[in-house]
Amino acid sequence: MISLATIDQYLVTCSRPSWQQWSNIKLAHRLSLAVIIFCILLGIPYMIYFNIIEQPTSYKIICTSTNAAFFQYHIYVYIICLAGVVPVTITVLFGCLAYRNVQQLAHRTVPLIRRELDKQLTTMVLVQVVHNFFATIPYTIVTAINYSSILPNDSVIIAQLQFTNVITIYLYYLNYTSPFYIYLGVSERFRHQLIYVLFEIHLKRWRRRQVNVDIGGGACRPSEA
Hints:
This protein is mainly α. The chain contains 8 helices and 2 strands. Strand 1 and strand 2 form a beta hairpin.
């Protein structure tokens, strides 16, 4: 989804009106649905070819593919390409283009509020692009090294690579937990909106409910007596 967000931000900040028209909520809904369907179809083979097995040497229970061809697809097509190189390339490319467009906003006849919103959204997306780059590339590189044919048959090096692989996996999964904190730290408007929703809406609503409960409970006590 970050790839689509980066492309959308490039289209929004583009100087060509014909390209800006491609950034609309209707197309966003369709693309989001298409991505969801694609991910579901991509995950169906994993339900077939991935199984829980016990390693013969360490007796550890792991979930892996018992089909050699599908395992090669999982490593080189899914992890390295679809989850690594392709999204990073798209986000970096369109992120740089969006940044260039934002730099040129001052020379266009764009309303001030619209200009500031575009800058803020672009900043949010670019920070996430940078974070995703440093969170994804190490895992992709280590995975490629782990399953390459040039890996030396040295138990110490293999153990070091396995440890590095675990660290990069944790780093990779930060991609799914970081957006909220990135937006919270980068966007002042996002922080104000969060405070407004939490305290001005939900907290006051909760307090009103508590007051109503207390009043209702107090009204029932005399009748119970």
